[in-house]
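P.,

For your records, the input lines for the assembly:
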Amino acid sequence: MVDLSVKIGDLTFQNPIQPASGAFSWEYNDVIDLNRLGALVAKTICREPRLGNPTPRMAETEAGIIQSIGLPGKGIDYFLENIVPEYAKFEPPLVVSVSSESAEDFAELARELSVPDVDVIECNISCPTRNTTGGNFAMQEDHTKMVMEGIRAATDKPVWAKLSPNAGDLVAVALAAEEAGADALVIANTFLSLKIRTDNFRPALGNKFGGMVSPALKPIVLRMVYQVAKEVNIPVIGVGGVTKAEDVVEYMLAGAHAVGIGYAGFRNPSALTTIIDDLETWCDERGIEKVTDLIGAVKDDDMEMDPLVAASHGV
Amino acid sequence: MNDLAPDRKYTNAAIPVGGVDPHPDKPSGEFITDVVSNDWVNDEYKLLVVRAAERALTAYAGQFYHLLCPSPDGAEVWMRRPMSIYKVDKAATCLEFLYKCEGRGTQGMATLAAGDKFNVAGPLGVGFSLDPAWKNIVVLGRGVGLATLAPLSQLAAENGVGVTAILSARKSNLVMSEDLFDELGATSITVVDEDGSSAVENVEKILEKLIADGKADAFFTCGSSRLLKLMQNLGKKYDVPGQVAMEQIMVCGIGACYVCMRTFEVNGEKTLKRVCREGPVFNMQEAVGW
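C-alpha cells returned:
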C-alpha cells in the first residue's frame, strides 16, 4: 500500500490532504473523521473580535461562487482559550491561520500563537476581502518580505505564507517570502471578483467584492504552483479547485507537497476523506509506493515539437 | 485513463440506502437517497419523498438538510440548498420535503423523478424544543414557512400538547398542510390575502383571543418578517415565550464558512449568529427580522 505521508519542513503529515483555511472548522467532525486528515487548518484569526462583512456573503456565478466573509472571529484571546483546545482533541497537526493590518501586530500575533498545541502558523497575508486598504501584503514583494521577516523573528514555529493570486508577479512575491524565512508557501488565496445583479443593478455581495472559489480555478492556480515550485527551495501547498484525487496528483506533479481543499468540502461534506481514499487507490493501482514520488514529476523537459513548428522557432 | 470522465468530476462518498455507514455515531452525514415520488400539491408547491439510510432519519422538527439539487437548466448549481424537514416517516424509512418551486435549486429539485438518486447532507442545525410546562402552543406560518412548522405540530401532538395553527397564504388554494394539521388534531385557522383576513391587525386579534383563552403557552413562527414582529410584540406584552425558524443563504451548512449570518439582539446587544449552527430555530425575542 502506498505511503501517503509527506514532510513539510520538519513536520510529517500522514497524507497531503488538508482543508483550506476559512473553509473548515472542527464542526466538520459531525460528518467526517477529522483524524484522517493530513492537517487541521483553523479559520484565520485576528487580534480583535470581528463581525465580518455584511450579508449576502455568497453569490453563485456561471463558474463557481464568490464569497466575502471578512475574517469573522472572537479575537486571539478567545481563540487560544476556546478554539485551539477544540482542535487539540484531534491528532493531525494544527495549522493556525492569522491576519493583521500591520506588520508589527502580525509578528506579535505570531508570537502569541506559538503555544504547544499549535504546530504551524499560516500567515494569511493575502485575504482579498479583508478591506480595501490593509492586510493584503502579498500583493507586493517588498511588503511580503517586510511582514514575513517580522513574523520569522517572532516565532520558532514553522511559518507558511499564504500568497495572493491577485499579485502581479507571484514568483517574485514567493521568492520574497522564501528569502524572509517562510518555511512553506500556500498558493493561493481566492481571486478578487465582482458580480452585479441585473435585476436591481446592485453588487450581489454586501461587501461588493468577493473572492472566487471554484473548480475553474484549478488550471490557473496549478500554473502558479508550477511556476513558483520551479523557483523556490521550500515546499508549496496548492490550493484552488481540488475536487478529486486526480487533482491532488496534478498539483503534486506540478511541484506541490500537499493541497488545501475548500470548495469540494462545501459541496460534499465527506469530500476530504473520500479524496484521501481515492488518492490511495489511485497510487496503489499504479504501483506508486510513495506519494512523494509524484512531487514535481511532471514530464515537461522533453516535449516534442512538430518539426515544422520547431523550424519556425529556429530550433 | 480518461481524467475527464464526467463521473469523476466530483468525489462522492455519500451513504446510499442499505449501504455501510462508516460513522453510525455521528450526528450528521452525507446520504444518497432514492426518490420515491415528487408530486405537485398545488400550483406552486411540490412534495418530494425520498428513501434514506437509517441515520438520515434522526431529524427532529426544525432541523434541516442541505440538498445537492440537480440543475434545472444545464448550468451548474454550485451550492447546496438548505431545506427544513417536512416529515420523517420512520416506518417507510422516508424523508419528505415540501417546497415552493422558485429559485434554481428548487426548480432543479422539481425535475427529480421516482427512481432518481438525490444527495442530502444532514440532519443539521438546532430545531424546535418544547418545554414540558407548555400545554398549548400556537404556530403561525406564512406560505412555505408552514412546511417547517408541520413537524413541530406533530411533535407537539405526540407529547400531548395542544396546537392552534394559523395558516397564512396569498390565496386559499395555496394554504399548505391544512389537512396535515387537522390530522394531528390541531385547530387550524386559515387567513388569506384575498379576503383581507391575513392582515396583521386581524391575526393580532386572533392571537390575543388565544392568549385570553389560555391556548398560547408559547409562540412559533416561520416565513414572514411582519408576523414575526407581531408575535414578538404580543410575546413581550403578554409574556409568551417563542421560537422562530430563520432562513439564510448557506454554503457549508455545518458551521465552518460563516456565510449564513443573521443579526440577533441578545441582552440589548446586536450580534451575528450562524443560521446553520446556532439555528435555524432561535429564541423569537432575539430575532431581528429581515
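Two observations worth noting. Residues 246 and 280 of chain B are 5 Å apart (CA to CA). Chain B has two domains: 6-124, 136-286.

Regards
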